[in-house]
Automatic annotation (TrEMBL):
Family: Belongs to the UPF0303 family.
Alphabetical list of Gene3D superfamilies matching this protein: Haem-degrading domain (3.30.450.150)
Lineage: Bacteria, Bacillati, Actinomycetota, Actinomycetes, Kitasatosporales
InterPro entries recorded: PduO/GlcC-like, PduO/GlcC-like_sf, YBR137W-like
Name of this protein: UPF0303 protein FRZ03_20900
A Pfam match: HbpS-like
NCBIfam families the record matches: PRK02487.1-5 (NF002696)
Length: 164
C-alpha cells in the first residue's frame, strides 16, 4: 500500500470522535477481555495479519496474542500507543490526528518522550459508561490506519454497533 493510499483511507477527526462516542461498554470483565481478544485473533487469522493484540484494564494485562509475522517491536509499539490512549482518554489515532490538524506532530508538541508514547493508530480506550476510561485494546503490526480500523471493527462486532 502506498502512502497516498493509506492517507486516502484515513478517517476524519469527526469520524474518529463519533467512533469514540459510540464504542462504549456498559461493563468490562475478564471474560469480556478474553472474548474481545479472541475476536481480534479470529479476524486477524482469517486475513493472515501479522499482528500482536493486547488488552489492558487498570494497569493489568488481561489478554495478549502474537500472531505469525509479528515481532517483539510490535509489543513495544503496543505499550507506547496504549499509554497515549489511556493518558488522553482517546484513540491513539485520534490524538495524533488532532496534533496533525494543528499543523504539528505529537512527537514535537506533546512534550512527552516518544520512546514512551506514540500517537499512532491502533489503541482504543476501553470506556465504561458512567465510569470512564479503564484501559485499552491495542493492535500493532499493520500501517496505523489499518491497526485502528481492525480494533474499531472488532469493537463494533463485540458491542453490536456500527456507524451505519
Amino acid at each position: 500500500m502506498t502512502q497516498s493510499t493509506a492517507t486516502d483511507l484515513a478517517p476524519t477527526i469527526e469520524e474518529l470522535e463519533e467512533q469514540e462516542r459510540r464504542l462504549v461498554f456498559q461493563r468490562f470483565t475478564y471474560e469480556d477481555a478474553w472474548a474481545l481478544g479472541s475476536l481480534l485473533v479470529e479476524l486477524s487469522r482469517e486475513r493472515g495479519l501479522p499482528v500482536a493484540i493486547d488488552i489492558h484494564r487498570a494497569g493489568q494485562q488481561l489478554f495478549h496474542a502474537a500472531l505469525p509475522g509479528s515481532t517483539p517491536d510490535n509489543d513495544a509499539w503496543i505499550a507506547r500507543k496504549r499509554r497515549v490512549a489511556v493518558r488522553y482518554g482517546a484513540p491513539s489515532y485520534l490524538v495524533g490526528s488532532r496534533f496533525r490538524a494543528k499543523g504539528t506532530t505529537f512527537e514535537h508538541s506533546s512534550r512527552l518522550d516518544p520512546d514512551v508514547y506514540a500517537a499512532h493508530g491502533g489503541s482504543f480506550p476501553i470506556r465504561v459508561a458512567d465510569v470512564g476510561v479503564i484501559g485499552a485494546v491495542t493492535v500493532s503490526g499493520l500501517p496505523q490506519v489499518e491497526d485502528h480500523r481492525l480494533v474499531v471493527e472488532a469493537l463494533e462486532k463485540f458491542l453490536g454497533t456500527s456507524a451505519g
